[in-house]
Amino acid sequence: MGGFFGAISKRDCVLDLFFGVDYHSHLGTRRGGMAIYDERDGFQRQIHNIENTPFRTKFEKDLADFHGRSGIGCISDTDPQPLLVRSHLGLYAITTVGIINNADRLVETYFSDHGHQFMAMSSGKVNATELTAALINQKDDLISGIRHAQEAIDGSATILILTRNGILCARDRLGRLPVLIGKNEDGCCISFESFAYHKLGYEDAYELGPQEIVRVTAEGWETLSPAGTQMKICAFLWTYYGYPNSNYEGVNVEVMRYRNGEIMARDEVQQGRLPKVDYVAGVPDSGVPHAIGFANRSGKPFARPFVKYTPTWPRSFMPVNQDVRNQVAKMKQIPVPELIEGKKLLFVDDSIVRGTQLRETVEFLYESGAAEVHMRSACPPIMYGCKFLNFSRSNSDMELLARKTVQELEGDEGQEHLDEYADASTQRGACMLQSICKTLGFDSLGYQSLDGLLEAIGIDRDQICTYCWTGKE
Which pathway is this protein assigned to (predicted)? Predict the structure, then answer.
């Protein structure tokens, strides 16, 4: 994933930019970057590796040297950015969030002649932001270039461009991520997360539509290219990676999660599937609000049978090495024996992707004396790796727990019946749940239905991307 923040003001905006970017640290773990423009001294830029050190720690020492009234910054889970680009369109800084699935084909199609080159990363791949800039530079102006890039890219591209005259912000062609503008008496900001600018004294001012391109200055903003009519905003904004106090398309994240848990419990009660348990709990931290909603509706008491020790490892998806990640996940789990020993527990997690850490969590709970462990996922079975935002990064869909289980149950034939496997009311769906329970050690397992999830979000379902569950774009 990744996050972004931009600010432009009648005064120095470096601190606003610093704290605004820092408030997006939950969205990525690899690189952080800031680019600032000053009328006298021009562009200043810095990029740091944040894999083992928080963004704010890496950038605090840079603040004394940064100065300017406009800037953009990012938290990146992929490429080093923002980049400084010099072309016939002028000198500008650019940062992007998204994914380019057809990068090799784009390079071959547009840049295979002599005189074009890209700086390759250690993986050998092209920096996606550099490729986006190269596509933009094929046109005679930035607006035409942005539209060209977004049309050419298979995947998604949300773009911020810092120029001498302001900031251009472009929401992805299908609006898979939000782009929000805040305003105060001195200027404006652009943000992924709305809470980031609320804490800095900005008020909600504008939310870009899909494909819309806007120029932002200290005085305000103007639309340079209108919004499209089709939107496919990512559902996982609400279920998992969005921050609790943010709003997207007018729907608050935390409120949606409470409602989602309530709907799950409502449906289980109606279907007579709710087990007799002592406590309902969330798998910390993102499963907790879903679990609160589930507990409130089911009438079962909410508890925290284990907590995570976060001062040393504050983010569950650090570090990069999977073996170390698994060990860290185990070390972070601190039990509350009085709430586990001899108890029947129902846990709600935000999602079940590969199931590796969940298996270790269940083992940890039984080792701590739990009598029963029931598991619920706050979203449907993930059948497809995300190809738009890198949410569920996989080398193969068969790494996903649900798809792997289908293959084990029925081989290639099962892959033709994924809709049935995703529906717990079918024979195939029941078999998949039973198999996962046996593999991971659950006493029972339930997934939120797609209808229930969309009901919890509450906006037009045709405007929500559900690819990772349905495989339909």
Answer: Purine metabolism; IMP biosynthesis via de novo pathway; N(1)-(5-phospho-D-ribosyl)glycinamide from 5-phospho-alpha-D-ribose 1-diphosphate: step 1/2
